Amino acid sequence: MKWSTVSKCLVVLAAAGYIFGTSCSARKDASTQSETGPSSGDASRAQTSWDFDSQKVGSVPPGWKVTETGGKGKPVKWQVVADTTAPSAAQVLALTETLNTGNTMNLLMAVNLKLKDLDLEVRVKVISGKHNQGSGVIWRAVDANNYYLARWTGLSNNFRVYCIKDGNPKRLATVDIAADPKAWHTIKITHQGERIVASLDGVKFMEVNDATFGEAGMIGLCTKADATAAFDDLKAQAIPPQSPRPEKEQE
Questions:
Q1: How far apart (Å, rounded) are the C-alpha atoms in residues 206 and 104?
Q2: Beta strand 135-143 pairing with 76-82
Q3: Of the candidates 200, 110, 194, 203, which has an alpha carbon nearest to the alpha carbon of residue 151?
Q4: Which residue among 56, 122, 202, 213 has its CA within the 20 to 30 Å range from the CA of 91?
Q5: Is 130 in the same domain as 208?
Q6: In the prediction, which pLDDT does 27 show?
């Protein structure tokens, strides 16, 4: 074979290798993106943290649903707003207007994310509320009438955990806390199996067991009745299930 023929063959093979290599690389990148990227149809790939700084002011972020528990359809307004006092300025998500009263829960739910055993954390600042200032987070939500709720209120200075079933609240735990009603506070929930641990500003205040909702559910934000509040730095992370307690040996 002549050298010119060999050279042509090498050029062709090299080009083929380059094409195949590029093609494989492209397929690999696409595969990686598919496995790790967020997807609204797959809760395991959904967004799990929000600082709201990149969202449009005046809007409700994509993937969030405005709803309520025990209300009469009165208007509420959730929106991204500017807030220079925020822990991670300069924007937060807030309920800025509500005409609700009584036991109505104003909810904003992240519909694309479902978790069972989780660490859930959010920073919250009460804005106003003549009759109620309860504000906090929900999790393992089946729908707008079935979920767990942890909320803090500066009006009566208490921190509580509830189970809301069929729209009816059941108080699971409560503690009186004298905290600055005008400051930002951090609510953190760890829920493994039936065990719920609730912390405020880094201090564990409550631990309770409840088996009402044992499956994965949505997370969200909540204020009660006429309470308005701002929320920032929401984080939800799946954690391993609680290890079963060893059985006692039979005597």
A1: 24
A2: unpaired
A3: 200
A4: 202
A5: yes
A6: 33
